[in-house]
Amino acid sequence: MIPEERLTQLINRHQYLEHVMAEGGGGDDFVRNSREYAELTPIVEVAQELRRLRAEAADLEAMLADRTTDPEMRALAEEELPAIEKRIPELERQLQILLLPKDAADEKGAILEIRAGTGGEEAALFAADLYNMYQRYAELQGWSFEPISMSDSDLGGFKEVIVAVRGRGVFARLKFESGGHRVQRVPETEAGGRIHTSAATVAVLPEAEEVDIAIDEKDLRIDVFRSSGPGGQSVNTTDSAVRITHIPSGIVVQQQDEKSQHKNREKAMKVLRARLYDMERTRRDAERSALRKNQVGSGDRSERIRTYNFPQGRVTDHRINLTLYKIDQVMNGEALDEIISELITHDQAERLAAMEAEG
Fold it and tell me: Which long-range contacts (CB under 8 A, 24 or more apart) does 261-267 make?
C-alpha cells in the first residue's frame, strides 16, 4: 500500500513546479522543471484519484459503523463501497508502475541493426522482412525511419541493415526486440517444398547524442577507401567510404552508402556513438542488478526471442510464452504492438515483484 505521505509529497511537488513555471524565467532550469512537471502529471492524476477514493471509502465505512445512519443512506453506502474497494488496489498498482524507476534512454530514438544469421539467402530475405515489419510499425507509430547503411544480398534480401528510428518513446517500445529471430517456412529458393529454419539477429541501441557519450578523437583510427558495389565493382571514383575504429573498445563501423566522405563519416559516428553508449549502459546495468538476466529487457543478442512459423500462421515470443495466430498482421507491423505491449507489461510486473521482494 502506498502511504498517504507519499501521495502528498507527489502532489505538493507537482504544485510547486507549476508555481515556479508560472513565475517565468527561462534557461536550463525552466527546461528541467517543464520535463519533471510533464513526467509527474500522469502520476499525480492517479495519486489524486486514489486519495479521493480512499477518503470516500473511509466516509462510507464510518457511515456504516454509525448505528444512527439513515437506512436509505446505509443501503446506498453498502452498494457503493465494494466498487470503491475494488478500484483502490487497481489504482495503487497503476501508481506503483508509474513510479517504477525510468530507463534514462526510454524517450530516445533508436539505432536498429538487423543482420542475417544462419540460413544463407533465405536468412537475408527474412532480414528484409523484419526490416519491412519495423518500417511499417514505425509508420503506424508516427516515427521517422531513416536507413543509415544497407548491405544487399543477391536475391534482394539484406546481409545487414542499420536504421535510425526517431520519435517519442521509440527506445522504450523497441528495446525488447533485441535478440535472435527465427523463421520457419518454405523458402522461395526451395523447389521441393520443404520447410527451412533460418535466423536473423536484431540489435536495438538507444540513439546517443554527443552529450551522452564523449569520444576522444585520439581514440579513433579513420580509414577512407573507395565504395564498392555488388561483385566488388567500384561505386565511386573517389575515396568516399569511411571505416572508423574505436581503439579502446575495438568497435569498428564502416559506412559507404553516401557519395560524400563527410556524410559517411557523420553516419558512422552516429552508429559508433550508439554502440559505445549501449556498451556503457550494459556495463552499468550488469553492475547495478544481478536480476537483469531474469528480466525481459536484458537485450542479450544471442538469446532466441521469437519464432515466426509461416505454415502454421503463428508468431511465438519465447520470453513470455505468447503465441499469436496472426503472422500476416505481425509482419505488416499492425499486430507487432500487441507483442510489444505484453513484453512491457511483463517487464513492469517483474520489476514490481523485484522491488517488493527487496522492500
Answer: 261/224, 264/240, 265/222, 267/148, 267/149
